[in-house]
Amino acid sequence: YWSDSGSRSSDYLKASGDAIFRHIAEVGVTAAARATGWLNARWRHTFEPYLDYSYQNVQLSEGSKQRYYVFDNYDRSVDWLDQFAGRSRNLPYSYYGVTPGLRNVLRKTDDAGESRTVLDLDVYCAFQFNDTDYTEGTRYTRLTKNPEKPNYGKHDGKAVPGARIMWRPTKDTSLSARAEYDTDENTLAYGHLELRHAVSDGFSWYGRYIGRDHRWWDYAPTAYDPDEMKRDDFNWARYRFVEVGFEHELCDAIAWSPFARWDVRDNELDEIGAWIDFRTDCLGFRFICSFDENYERVDRSTTDCDFSCGFFIYLRALGPVNGNPLKAD
Fold it and tell me: What is the model's pLDDT at position 14?
């Protein structure tokens, strides 16, 4: 088994001199059993059932009676996986959850004696429970009964079944997919499919499909009439993107990648951009620049075209993980 823990703190000093804060502490533990056996001289199978447990506690400023939206830009989730994955950045409310799962891995040894993963399948179901009630009230308030233990999800538990699969038919080609199902809405909330091929050691291209259909759970329902807005669409992520790009490693210290993303639903360009990495022996420094096309919100308001830039540092041994932590993937 293994465990992890962490904390986040957001503090804000108003012009009046009053200070407000939001403190989030989280802890988790994973218990797993692993069995490995050889199917023949080339193929090895690993069977691993596991159980994740996660607990998160949130504390607001003493005497506060509501959630401060001034913190939401920093503490909010940016994707479905942040909300119910249990092993990611979670919502700013108190909860606990368990995730039982079963992982199967097939590895193959080639003629040169090199072993590689050919198939990696992980099937799981996340159960999230909230340990604090909120007042019945109106849908505009969402006040907690105990302000010192905020909770903005549902009182009853939520089950999220999902699966991850990675298939690598050759050393240079991989196909990966992940899906999670929203049992409350009976819809596929998260879908991600990616094909990647390495042309050489330093050059590879990829194509991916990104689909989302879920509510932004970190916001209270919109003030608009839900009958007219169709299930509070103002706070709903419903989109399908196709993205293509390539990654080129110029040398051990420098790599770059341009990309373009197409909005399948609206049949228009969504985003185009690039990132460049500067790497040392242990750290990577990534600079990102992109252009976002203008779009129309559900309330018919519009946003202009926008240029965005970002920068973050990562441990080279772990990699940049999601590539761009500043936006939903």
Answer: 64
